[in-house]
């Protein structure tokens, strides 16, 4: 029996970063042909549907007739998903690792390899995100105030918040060390 978590990680890699690794392509909005993905990673349609439907972070969506599939967020491939622009809550959070602090304090939060900076709605989620990179560190972002100054915030289907850039001045004196 194939391990669904391992398959899901492989699907993330293909649909966000490297479709060419199984010889498939993404269209301009990130959609891949479902049957081509299934053939490329040798899983059943049922397994794929189970992964899409049960993924804890709703990482993937099918189109209406399930002929296409895409990742909902996290891409490095240059596609354009039209996320709804949304009014953010007063504060959002970004979990990172302590080792990135000097660079972040100098340059602000940048999308790095991805298309957007990813923000979380609460500190706990941000800590989990930060732990993926090392000793976690959480920035509290005054999202509402930024939006009022013209910065645009989007929300992916799973609730992850996205924006293009958080300049360093919005991070000043509001960083929280996580022990
Ligand atoms: C850091 C996961 C140096 C940034 C998560 C982060 C998320 C800088 C790292 C989603 C920097 C990029 C995305 C700067 C930002 N200098 N480092 N100027 N600006 N960074 O993985 O936000 O489970 O691309 O702080 O839950 O960690 O995959 O982004 O630490 O929602 O579905 O550069 O991926 O979702 O790392 O994670 P990432 P992220 P999944």
How big is the Rg? 17 Å
The portion of residues assigned to helices is 25-40%
Count of beta strands? 9
SSE pattern, N- to C-terminal: HEHHEEEHEHEHEEE
Oligomer: single chain
**Alpha plus pi helix count:** 6
Explain what the structure shows.
The chain is an alpha+beta fold and 179 residues long. It contains six helices and nine strands. The chain has helices spanning 4-17, 34-41, 45-54, 101-107, 123-131, 143-148; strands spanning 32-33, 60-62, 68-71, 92-97, 117-119, 136-141, 154-155, 161-163, 175-177. The strands form three sheets. It has a three-stranded antiparallel β-sheet with strand order 1-3-2. It has a three-stranded antiparallel β-sheet with strand order 4-6-9. It has a three-stranded antiparallel β-sheet with strand order 5-8-7, with no helix packed on it. β2 (60-62) and β3 (68-71) form a beta hairpin. The longest helix is centred in the first third of the chain and has 14 residues, at 4-17. The N and C termini lie far apart (39 Å). The model has no long low-confidence stretch (mean pLDDT 93). The structure holds ligand HQG. Ligand HQG binds next to β4 and α4.
List keywords for this structure.
179 residues; alpha+beta; three-stranded antiparallel β-sheet; 18% strand; elongated; binds ligand HQG
